Here is the input.
Amino acid sequence: MELITHTPEPLKVMAWVKGLIEGKHMNLSEISDNFAEEEFIDSLRSAIYASFEFVHFVFDVTDVPRAFTHQFVRTRAAAYMQESLRFSTRKGGFEFETGPSVSNDPAKLAIYNDLMASSASAYDALLKMGANTEDARGILPINILTSISQSITYRSLINVAEQRLCRQAQGLHQEVLKEMKKLLSEKVHPMLGAYLAPSCSHTGFCSWGGRLDRPCSLQKIYPMKPDPLAFIEKEKELL
Here is the structure.
């Protein structure tokens, strides 16, 4: 993964935007590093994250399965550009992801690899027979490796991290967000990376108690969020 570009001096930009609320029109050159950091922390104490939307990051994520990218693009407040298998062919074979529950079992791995080889062979055969790449790609596996770029604001990145750094999230998604966190800490500003965390770290309770959610070891530390049914019943009484 690579951080392609980002808003220069992001904390100062946030402080500048926040100043507009108070009618201040500062120059970035007038904003000190200490003041920018203080304003960033002050913003985190509030629920108003508007200034975070003025800071953008562009990431290039490579060698990930398309199964992952199908989840990755569910974040609607971001822009994406993905490698197209209509224009990028996979003649002569392709690389793919193998999950640990398969790779750690020789019998399962043999079945998995055989099917991947068959898919690659059939794909090549279709191309040789004159099939268009957009039609032949239909038999390629969902775990074929690909690349995708993402343009996202800091506010949206916080929201994504709250979900995808949670231990019940898919393993690869956790790894991708951890790498983004590391890139922000090392290449942009340590505060920006440090604040990216699962939601329980920010709220003090676990938000994943639904029927389709998975158990997490941190649920022993953080209580579940208040019962929504009890809240609804209480609000109904006030109507």
